[in-house]
Design brief:
4 domains; 616 residues; Rossmann fold; 37% helix; five-stranded antiparallel beta sheet; alpha+beta
């Protein structure tokens, strides 16, 4: 904020708090409305802020009540943590009432933020803490930035905050994602980052919850099907029951249409019977679409967990090199020897681990995956070890099993083990050594039976030498290391690509040799994740029987160091290519910009800010 703006803001505060006429035009309308609401509630901007945090047990109960939201948001908290550290900021996830659930980011700023109660267990609704991005985003039901003295309470003037509400598929507020830093620093891209992350979280709500309904995924661009930019609508019969903001915007509806509109009122086709193709809205606009019909629900015994294999098409298990490692891994797991799987991001470490599990004597038993980078320290014991009845306020009457006990008889998969904080490594080591779990609440130790498989894309030996990873934990989990080769290192790339193509495009026939050769010659910096995304895009852009030409490849992969042949020509670099890069790097804007060989600010300007408010 420049000096002139600060002077205008100071004048607005003086005018408002002295009881003069409303300072319309001097501050944004949402800020002024928030000030009015705060004043009407009797808040005094000059008073001390009374924001007492919850007790530890109350916080555990709150986090457990919002566990679904926290699980869906962890990837974004992890990816935004690095961005927040660069700008000396913190990322904050709250529930639908503005209660802080988790924070991540700069430890230095977190210490200063704690002085104004910006920490887990504190309420940041407007009624509690006045005008602020979290509370005002909830009140206005829209993304908002609050800078410096725009905050109602004077002590909050040190903050710059950008927040966006998170809506569940039914249009209800689920929580808020916020990025807060010091007001004196530049936060040009904070809102863009938050919007992008919330879009990813809201899209993830639709992954597995609607198997018994018709799910329509669509967009004006075929390249954006399958990404967080696609619109998603869910129909129970012909009745619209759920949808994301993108979809409602594309067809010109608002959240009030949920549970009221029908498929015939939205799309010209009365029956959503296509699997993949085009849909036309009532106003004549055409969309590329993929429709998933409801599937029959298998009969289950109450309380049991489905063990159906997850459909994955990432493919490293198809390479000859990985097949040789797989045979070794089977013998090791059957002998209960811990295995460490190393490899670059996107090399298919979890896919390999799941396939390994399916081939061992522990097949049919649980495969419990734990993202070590996302485990919040405040909940580590409850999540890993479980708790007894009455262990804390809000605990289930029967208690709960931890993740370790849920892996009984099977595999405990420790993903991203290199990103686990040192403070948590000692607790995990104790469980791996003793194979014994003591639930919270004074429960007696319980023996467990599982084989740990860990995965990392980092050099753990170098981390041990640097003192950032415990040597005793390393030797416990790395009794044998399997290193998965990157896609560029495989000697049988054409065979791997052909096998993957047969999985993702079952009705399209074989790839022409020139196309296969072009794909095989490309070095695929995003590994199997990037390859599978490209193959899916090719399949989506061609009908069965169409001739696929090299010129039709969605990102024209070619040999050499260039990630995209479009790179360097910003006028030709499409939004779809940028979106693919962001998706391939799990929302990490810096990594996506490096891959595209463009400046990070350029990517923000051309992608995130372009149409940022279209779906709000």
């Amino acid at each position: 904020m420049n000096t002139a703006s600060e002077v205008a803001l100071a004048a607005a505060r003086e005018k408002f708090f002295s009881g003069m006429d409303l300072p319309e035009g001097l501050v944004p309308a949402p800020i002024l409305r928030s000030w009015q609401r705060c004043a009407e509630q009797g808040l005094d901007a000059g008073n001390a802020i009374l924001a007492e945090p919850m007790t530890a047990s109350e916080l555990r109960a709150l986090q457990e009540q919002n566990e679904t939201l926290r699980l869906l948001s962890r990837s974004e908290l992890v990816s935004l943590r690095a961005e927040a550290k660069l700008t000396d900021s913190v990322v904050i996830l709250t529930d639908a009432k503005g209660l802080v659930l988790d924070t991540a980011g700069s430890p230095e700023f977190a210490g200063r933020a704690a002085q104004v109660a910006l920490r887990p267990g504190v309420a940041w609704s407007e009624t509690s803490t006045g005008t602020n991005a979290i509370g005002t985003a909830l009140a206005e039901r829209r993304a908002i930035e609050v800078h410096g003295a725009e905050h109602f309470f004077e002590p909050h003037g040190i903050l710059h905050c950008a927040a966006s509400p998170i809506f569940d598929p039914y249009g209800k507020l689920a929580g808020v994602l916020d990025m807060s830093g010091h007001a004196s620093a530049g936060h040009t891209h904070a809102m863009g980052l938050v919007r992008l992350a919330v879009e990813q979280i809201e899209h993830r709500f639709f992954n597995h919850a609607f198997d018994e309904m018709t799910v329509v995924r669509f967009h004006r661009s075929a390249d954006l099907l399958g990404t967080a930019r696609e619109g998603v609508l869910v129909f129970d019969g012909d009745r619209l029951v759920a949808g994301n903001r993108r979809a409602l915007h594309l067809v010109g509806l608002d959240r009030k249409a949920l549970r009221k509109a029908t498929s015939e009122e939205i799309f010209a086709e009365a029956s959503l019977s296509i699997e993949r193709g085009e849909l036309r809205s009532r106003n004549g606009e055409r969309f590329f679409a993929a429709v998933t019909q409801p599937r029959a629900t298998p009969l289950r015994v109450p309380g049991t967990v489905s063990r159906e294999p997850r459909p994955r098409h990432d493919g490293p298990i198809l390479s000859s090199e990985a097949q040789a490692d797989l045979a070794k891994g089977i013998r090791l797991v059957n002998a209960e020897i811990p295995v460490l799987i190393a490899g670059e991001t996107g090399a298919g470490k979890e896919v390999f681990a799941r396939h390994l599990h399916a081939k061992t004597s522990r097949a049919g038993k649980p495969f419990i995956a734990i993202n070590c980078a996302a485990l919040p320290e405040s909940l580590i014991e409850a999540e890993l070890f479980g708790y007894e009845a009455g262990a804390f306020t809000g605990a289930r009457k029967s208690g709960a099993k931890g993740l370790v006990q849920q892996a009984e008889g099977g595999i405990l998969f420790l993903d991203e083990i290199g990103d686990m904080p040192l403070s948590l490594q000692s607790r995990l080591l104790r469980v791996l050594q003793d194979k014994e779990v003591s639930p919270l609440g004074g429960g007696s130790p319980q023996k467990t039976d599982f084989v740990p498989i860990a995965a990392t894309n980092r050099d753990l030996q170098a981390m041990v030498e640097a003192g950032t990873f415990r040597a005793d934990l390393y030797f416990r989990i790395a009794q044998y290391t399997i290193t998965l080769q990157s896609l560029a290192e495989l000697t049988d790339r054409p065979a791997v690509i052909e096998a993957l193509w047969s999985q993702v495009a079952q009705h399209h026939g074989s790839l022409p040799k020139p196309v296969l050769d072009q794909l095989a010659a490309y070095h695929w910096p995003g590994n199997f994740r990037e390859l599978v995304g490209s193959l899916r895009a090719i399949a989506a852009l061609h009908d069965p029987g169409d001739t696929i030409c090299v010129s039709a490849l969605p990102q024209s992969p070619a040999p050499g160091p260039a990630i995209y042949t479009l790179t360097g020509d910003l006028d030709a670099l499409s939004e779809a290519a940028m979106r693919r890069a962001v998706d391939q790097h799990r929302g990490n804007i810096s990594a996506a910009a490096r891959a595209l060989k463009i400046d990070r600010s350029t990517l923000y300007r051309r992608l995130i800010w372009k149409g940022a408010g279209a779906a709000d």
